[in-house]
Amino acid sequence: MATIRDVAKLAGISVSTVSRYLNKSGYVNAETELNIKNAIDKLNYQPSVVARGLAGKNTKTIALLLPDITNPFFPELARAVEDVATIYGYTVIFCNTDGQVGKEKKYIDALKSKNIDGIIFASNTLGQEDVDKLASFNIPYVCLDRAPTNGTCSVVRSNDLEGGKLAVQHLLDSGCKKIGHIYGPQDLITAKERLIGYEESVRVYDWFSPSLMVPGDFGIEGGKKATEILMKRHPDIDAIFAGNDLMAFGALKVLHRMGIKVPEQVAVIGYDGINMTEITEPELTTIAQPTYDMGALVSRILIKKIEGDIEEDQIHVLDIKLISRDSTRRRG
Amino acid sequence: MATIRDVAKLAGISVSTVSRYLNKSGYVNAETELNIKNAIDKLNYQPSVVARGLAGKNTKTIALLLPDITNPFFPELARAVEDVATIYGYTVIFCNTDGQVGKEKKYIDALKSKNIDGIIFASNTLGQEDVDKLASFNIPYVCLDRAPTNGTCSVVRSNDLEGGKLAVQHLLDSGCKKIGHIYGPQDLITAKERLIGYEESVRVYDWFSPSLMVPGDFGIEGGKKATEILMKRHPDIDAIFAGNDLMAFGALKVLHRMGIKVPEQVAVIGYDGINMTEITEPELTTIAQPTYDMGALVSRILIKKIEGDIEEDQIHVLDIKLISRDSTRRRG
DNA sequence: CTGAAAGCGCTTACAG
DNA sequence: CTGAAAGCGCTTACAG
């Protein structure tokens, strides 16, 4: 591997000048520039990012902390993050935290020792300590969905409150008369807001009862159990709004097993808009988050921050969208 | 951030000794050791991986090149790779190549300039040039599924040939009399071997005809189109073996649309064993690859290689497994 | 068992 | 416009 010294020697100048050329910092004579270019070409020179990093510059790598890449919501997000990172010449390290603060802390330490340039938190945790640590390390970060308890950073999320309302409205528009809700873990803002959206839209009706709200775990299994509970408590409901698509999958399964027709007897709507919603039978109506856009945006914001585009920390709320499919289609 | 020099100073010794202690290279007096430990604790010292990297040691990071994390086969693989990497103190960079050599090359260059320790290729491409480049860079790598055309490296794959045969056998055992096959892109060894497995199992039957083999793209859409073609050509088939689960999903969709009952009229079996196979209706029978195990193994092999555990390059072929579900259950 | 020195490949003031 | 020198935080022979 050629080094900057080799380039300098071949171009007949000093290392400093080559460095200046490379970084476009300071002047360099047109002719010298040409010589440098040629030398670089001839030697197939590529600067060492690690040396650069040691010398105090960017390491051109960011990290993406997420709970579990195996959860179908995250691959698309990760893809988007990586796509825009690549555009800017960054590389992304991905870390599965399983939502455990312990793991998250370990990652942060490891990342710090690698002089990572910034971190995207799509992970659920991130306590006060982490924030402090990051601040003391002076490493930029951006959050997905959840703003850190204390301290500020830019946040990208989508409008879960509106989403919850939209889901209910769609169900009502489809002619449903009594709607149950399976909500996700309430330490997740997303789950919380969707629940609030549901409740606010629904509490004016006289059929409403708190027992229509059943907890789930954002997984298929949780969706199944919750559906069983819901149908036992309220055999007369004609719609289920699941807090995410996985739980909706669970609901479809259980309803099918119980011989309850979807959507004729019970309509089902999910949330997130993951790809697999179109392979169920019936295909699942869902409130789609702009997952890819969220990933792209969060990545872009972080990189800007890293590169010194000072921008006020702010919360970006992206719009959600109803994808209407057969699982809520009440009439031919 | 404390540096090794701070530690040395606090412990009242030289930097060299601290380094020796850190790397467990060379002797260090028991008392000195204690002093170092204390100093490290007090200062909350953490060695800089990038400095270490510059000085010629591992950067403790590996890269995972895959076609697209959005393809449901890869998240589980990636998760496994990351899990074992973490155990060994490594961090993983993930790269979506979309199967394009151009992207792959770019990544390799970028990774090289970061002194990455090793690469896992789960990507489809990897031509001769890449291999040469890697060899010249002297960077360890391991492949998933596909051995590089030329040059050697360890390969982890599962037994696709057996898998193809197993799929057919299962269908025959279920009482199917005429089986079609949707095969994946033939530049992928996995797709090819599954096809061969099918053909070898089936060509002895007089119902067999080459027109029973229809190409797909390993995607849902391709599965749909192929199924349409297949059913038009051979309305009398009673089973479809799809080369992967996504295409099987497509098949289920189309059959449902055509009013053909699965499994009563046509049984369907997929391949890969991705999680979502259990959310379709009927649930999809599939030949499951040990995806997680494959990822864990490939990661472990790479890290061993990096750390100098010289091991003969070899091909590890893991077993596949039939997961029998309703989509092939012909009788109550 | 321990330390001084050189080096990894860059960048960054500081002179000129 | 250009170069010499110091420094980033480590490791690695080489002496002692």
Short description:
With 332 residues, chain A is an alpha/beta fold. Chain A has twelve helices and twelve strands. Chain A folds into three domains: 4-47, no CATH class; 61-158 and 292-320, 3-Layer(aba) Sandwich (Rossmann fold); 160-289 and 322-328, Rossmann fold (3-Layer(aba) Sandwich).
If you had to describe this structure to a student in words, what would you say it looks like?
The structure is a homodimer. Chain A is α/β, with parallel strands linked by helices and about 325 residues long. Chain A folds into 3 domains: about 5-45, no CATH class; about 60-160 and about 290-320, 3-Layer(aba) Sandwich (Rossmann fold), CATH 3.40.50.2300; about 160-290 and about 320-330, 3-Layer(aba) Sandwich (Rossmann fold). Chain A has helices spanning about 5-10, 15-25, 30-45, 50-55, 75-85, 100-115, 130-135, 160-175, 190-200, 220-235, 245-255, 290-305; strands spanning about 60-65, 90-95, 120, 140-145, 155-160, 180-185, 215, 240, 265-270, 285-290, 315-320, 320-325. In chain A, the strands form 2 sheets. The first copy, chain A, has a 6-stranded parallel beta sheet, with helices on both faces. In chain A, strands 7-6-8-9-10-12 form a 6-stranded mixed beta sheet, with helices on both faces. In chain A, helix 1 (about 5-10) packs across helix 2, helix 1 crosses helix 3 and helix 5 runs parallel beside helix 12. The model of chain A has no long low-confidence stretch (mean pLDDT about 90). At the A-B interface, helix 4, helix 5, strand 2, helix 6 and helix 11 of A face helix 4, helix 5, strand 2, helix 6 and helix 11 of B. Chain A binds a DNA duplex (16 and 16 nucleotides) through helix 2 and helix 4.
